[in-house]
Amino acid sequence: MEEVIIIGGGISGLATAYFLRKRGWSPLLLEAGAAPGGNLQSRQEEGYLRDMGPNSLMLKGRIVPEWLRELQLEGDIVEANPLAGRRYVLNRHRQPVALGPGVLFGGGLLSIRGRLRLLGEPFQPPLRTPDGEESIADFVRRRLGEEALNWLVDPFVSGVFAGNPARLSVQATLPRLAALEQDGGSLLRGALRARKKKLPGTPKTRLVSFREGLQVLPLRVADTLGDTLRCDTPVDQLAYSGDMWQVGSGNQTWQSKRLILALPAGAAARLLAPTDATLARELDAIPYPAVGSLSIGFQRPQVEHPLDGFGMLIPRVMGLETLGVLFSSTLFPGRAPAGQVLLTAFIGGSQNVLAGRNDDDLLATVLREISPLLGISGDPVFSRCRVWPKAIPQYEIGHLDRMKRIDTLSAGHPGLHFRANWQGGVALGDCIEQAWEFSQAANWQH
After folding, report:
1. 179 to each of 135, 182, 184, 366, 439, how far by Cα in Å?
2. CB 34: neighbour CB atoms within 10 A?
3. Residue 191 has pLDDT above 90, yes or no
């Protein structure tokens, strides 16, 4: 009998196994793929280093930085270029403009009316009696106005979450933003209060990666776990009998009183369907749009834009399919050969279905759209496409209520727990922090 069985070797499963081991438990971690890490995949090809899923890790607070020190990864960290603080967004004249105070005074992004509406945010009354969840779109319209939604917030939401602000819940997707209004009566006053509450000596937030890409992280965790982790072990049987969870993969079987599903919601639903069809339906209802990540390399003279920033977001009102572009070779060193640049473009998401599209079609679409925006001439010297059919879970309106129902239903199954990015935040740092908190709260008896 195993003390704990964890199914799913993405960052949530790996971190959960690591932190439970640190507390004296002996978990068994089963991963279907040949390597751990889920969509944390990096490749070195033709002198280019590309990340096919997430491209950076935000270090804030103490849990994630301390974990990297424990994993002896500090020497592998590469800091983001200081230029990463500059973020471009496409304006109504199809020109990339840097976000910042300047958008209030020019840049062709907001009209005079839109700027005045933005400046009037502190004078907008708060929603005194919030009832349930509010969409990001409704929240932003109410606080900042329609133009701020279309030209500032929508490109951020579609670029970061691949989502539709009209459907995403602000309380679930951006809880800190919703809290600012509740705490201060306005976003500005809430932000000022939060700044005053910030403790002296709080570590500065850092945007980082690793010399050989983000996949270094799951591979290092896997090394520390040793035989705890078993790859190439897809679980195809799951049942509860007596007080034990029965887990099967082919002709192998294991049992444990404690089961942690660190899986995408749909995959967890398929395993749980024979045991609890209602719980499975709730999990399966969490939407995951497809997203394509395209790594595109050029000779430096082929790109007129200085690429002096993090990247460029594209508002949906422009009618383009491309969500945004990272200036990858600017962001971190060693991403492209000398004299060349690497761009990472994203396409798809909730507002642009990718069904039936092949890699060549996606590449042609992205090149057609971004070439005039960044002054690109000629064909790329390098290109790769990776489509994630179910990329990022969407915390849509009703998500928080769904989480409560899932908690209630899963409580009826002793020993069943979940750890995945469909709850508690989709960012890598969120997944790691949630795994740590779960390990600290686990009050099981040996």
Report:
1. 14, 5, 8, 37, 26
2. 7
3. no
Question: For residue 296, which of 378, 218, 184 has the smallest C-alpha distance?
Answer: 378
Does residue 203 register a pLDDT over 80?
Answer: no
User: pLDDT tens across 153-173, in order?
Assistant: 999 999 899 999 999 999 999
- In the predicted model, what is the mean pLDDT of the chain? 93
Mean pLDDT of 190-203: 76
Determine the Cα–Cα distance for residues 237 and 251; give it in Å rounded to an integer. Answer: 10
Burial class (CB in 10 A: 0-12, 13-18, 19+), 345: buried
Length of the chain: 446
Q: Can you give the pLDDT at residue 80?
A: 96
Q: pTM for the whole thing?
A: 0.93
| DSSP run (H or E) holding 410 | helix 399-411
Compute the distance between CA of residue 39 and CA of residue 10 in angstroms, rounded to an integer. Answer: 7
Whether 155 contacts 136, CB under 8 Å: no
Amino acid (one-letter) located at 396: E
Residue found under tokens 């279907």: 32
Q: What is the DSSP letter of 303?
A: B
Name the token pair of 202.
């709080």
**pLDDT at 313 (0 to 100):** 95
Rounded to whole angstroms, the Cα distance separating 285 from 268 reads 12
